[in-house]
């Protein structure tokens, strides 16, 4: 007689109704696992969720954490759990482990600096604010990682195993296939487009009892009127003719490397003039090295991989940042700087100096979450606030949708088409309304799969 399956409880602690703070708790009578452990980003109300005192689980009782990829909204809360007593294994692919270390170290630095700045403004006698974590907590976190390649079954217990499949989102990103107490779950993590520029496409999975799928662009189709090459060529040439510079707020992982590759190819083809490229993102420089170390996780040739540092001025110190815009330097520049949604980082310095001039272009090359400066710019804001001051937006604002690391609605439906049998239920997370609502209806119409839009902290017993 087949053993009766025990009930499983699924709880979305983050990335439900939003695209940040990914944390999904899965529990049985014997096991307790967390899939992803991300920071909330974006609006002040979302960021407050990072400082919640009481979690709906005890970190010291977790059997482990499974990481789909290294982005901050999926990994950035790990050191907090370590501070709160988590000592179990963190399962990830090898590139994800390396990327996570770079991102968490950068995050710890920002946490410390933000706490310092906030404490300067606090009144006498007020309790000083503390950073969420420091470098020492990141180092303790990294000691817990256990890395695995894709398509390798990892036996955790007699009734618990997992394996990673390439998801096409960023270097090392993975779909998680999890078997627990006779149930098969598939967690999509963040899914890339069907044909990413420098990665293998997302892996199709044929079987699952339950699918937990992202829905970032569940109500949109990427603008593919122009290829990324054509779109970038058009923006650079138009800005060059005006005598201006292109400022690109960029994610350090994947996006910066893609942009540099395209720009170098366009210059080699003489489709755009030879304009100095500045990569002002210490994290972006570190991630570029990781790309060169993990060549089995992307489809770049050795020459293309080496070209990621060709014709590029790597800006190190903030003192160097201040010299990039020297009047004595070249009139036209292409500046790639963090962060991708213009929420912080060195791109803010360039925006202060350049966003008011109509000769310049601000080029957005990824998802811009609600509440971020990037979202304000993409929505046509007349002015943006930086460091408590208003800056009028005179520069042209352009956006390249075809470079997105996220699947659009068509890609998500294509990925679901690989399931031979209908899952018992599809849960949609990592998406804002109306994206999740529109995608739910589209899946039900197309495949007749039962779909639930995940609600934060709701417990689903399966």
Average pLDDT number: 93
Q: Helical segment tally? A: 14
The total tally of domains equals: 2
Going by CATH, the architecture of the largest domain would be 4-Layer Sandwich
Q: Can you give the helix content as a percent range?
A: 25-40%
Give the distance, in angstroms, between the N- and C-terminal Cα atoms. Answer: 21 Å
Q: Uncertain spans, ≥5 residues at pLDDT below 50?
A: none
Describe the main β-sheet briefly.
7 strands, mixed
The CATH superfamily name of the largest domain is Ribonuclease Z/Hydroxyacylglutathione hydrolase-like
Coarse structural class: alpha/beta
Oligomeric state of shown chains: single chain
Shape: globular
At the first level of CATH, what is the class of the largest domain? Alpha Beta
In which order are the strands of the major sheet placed? 6-5-4-3-2-1-22
| β-strand number | 22
Percent of sequence in beta strands: 15-25%
Q: Determine Rg (CA atoms, Å).
A: 22 Å
What is the CATH topology descriptor of the largest domain?
Metallo-beta-lactamase, Chain A
Comma- or semicolon-separated keywords:
14 helices; 2 domains; seven-stranded mixed beta sheet; alpha/beta; globular; 462 residues; Metallo-beta-lactamase, Chain A; Rossmann fold
How would you sum up this structure, described in words?
The protein is α/β, with parallel strands linked by helices and 462 residues long. The chain has helices at 44-48, 72-75, 78-83, 94-120, 135-142, 228-242, 255-268, 282-293, 302-306, 318-324, 347-354, 373-378, 409-416, 435-447; strands at residues 9-12, 24-27, 32-35, 64-66, 90-93, 145-148, 154-157, 160-166, 174-180, 183-187, 210-214, 246-249, 277-280, 312-314, 334-337, 361-364, 383-386, 389-392, 396-399, 425-429, 451-453, 459-461. The protein folds into 2 domains: 9-220 and 407-461, Ribonuclease Z/Hydroxyacylglutathione hydrolase-like (Metallo-beta-lactamase, Chain A, 4-Layer Sandwich), CATH 3.60.15.10; 228-403, 3-Layer(aba) Sandwich (Rossmann fold), CATH 3.40.50. It has a 7-stranded mixed sheet with strand order 6-5-4-3-2-1-22. α4 (94-120) runs antiparallel to α5 (135-142), α4 runs antiparallel to α8 and α6 (228-242) crosses α7 (255-268). It is globular, with a radius of gyration of 22 Å. 47% of the residues are buried. The mean pLDDT is 93.
């Amino acid at each position: 007689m087949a053993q009766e399956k025990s009930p499983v409880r699924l709880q979305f602690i983050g990335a439900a109704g939003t695209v940040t703070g990914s944390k999904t708790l899965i529990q049985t009578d014997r096991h307790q696992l967390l899939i992803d452990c991300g920071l909330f980003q974006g609006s002040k109300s979302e960021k407050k969720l990072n400082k919640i005192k009481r979690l709906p689980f005890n970190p010291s009782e977790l059997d482990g954490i499974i990481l789909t990829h290294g982005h901050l909204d999926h990994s950035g809360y790990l050191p907090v759990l370590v501070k709160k007593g988590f000592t179990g294994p963190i399962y990830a692919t090898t590139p994800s482990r390396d990327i996570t270390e770079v991102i968490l170290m950068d995050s710890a630095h920002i946490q410390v600096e933000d706490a310092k700045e906030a404490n300067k403004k606090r009144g006498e006698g007020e309790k000083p604010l503390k950073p969420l974590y420091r470098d020492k907590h990141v180092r303790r976190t990294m000691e817990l990682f256990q890395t695995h390649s894709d398509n390798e079954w990892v036996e955790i217990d007699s009734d618990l195993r997992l394996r990673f499949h390439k998801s096409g989102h960023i270097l090392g990103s993975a779909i998680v296939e999890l078997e627990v107490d006779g149930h098969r779950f598939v967690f999509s993590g963040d899914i890339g487009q069907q044909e990413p520029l420098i990665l293998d496409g997302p892996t199709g999975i044929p079987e699952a009892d339950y699918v937990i799928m992202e829905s970032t662009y569940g109500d949109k189709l990427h603008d593919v009127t122009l290829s990324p090459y054509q779109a970038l060529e058009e923006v650079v040439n138009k800005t060059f003719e005006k005598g201006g510079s292109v400022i690109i707020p960029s994610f350090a992982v994947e996006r910066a490397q893609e942009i540099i590759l395209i720009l170098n190819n366009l210059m080699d083809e003489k489709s755009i003039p030879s304009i100095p490229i500045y990569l002002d993102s210490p994290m972006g420089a570190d991630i570029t090295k990781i790309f060169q170390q993990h060549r089995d996780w992307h489809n770049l040739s050795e020459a293309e991989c080496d070209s990621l540092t060709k014709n590029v001025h790597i800006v190190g110190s903030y003192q160097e940042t201040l010299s990039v815009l020297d009047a004595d330097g070249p009139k036209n520049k292409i500046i790639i700087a963090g962060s991708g949604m213009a929420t912080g980082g060195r791109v803010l310095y360039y925006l202060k100096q350049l966003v008011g001039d109509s000769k310049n272009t601000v080029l957005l090359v990824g998802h811009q979450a609600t509440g971020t400066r990037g979202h304000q710019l993409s929505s046509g804001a007349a002015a943006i606030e930086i460091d408590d001051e208003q800056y009028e937006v005179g520069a042209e604002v352009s956006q390249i949708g075809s470079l997105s690391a996220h699947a659009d609605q068509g890609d998500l439906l294509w990925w679901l088409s690989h399931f031979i049998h209908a899952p018992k239920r599809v849960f949609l997370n990592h998406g804002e309304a109306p994206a999740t609502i529109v995608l739910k209806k589209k899946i039900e119409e197309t495949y007749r799969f039962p779909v639930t839009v995940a609600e934060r902290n709701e417990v689903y017993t399966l």
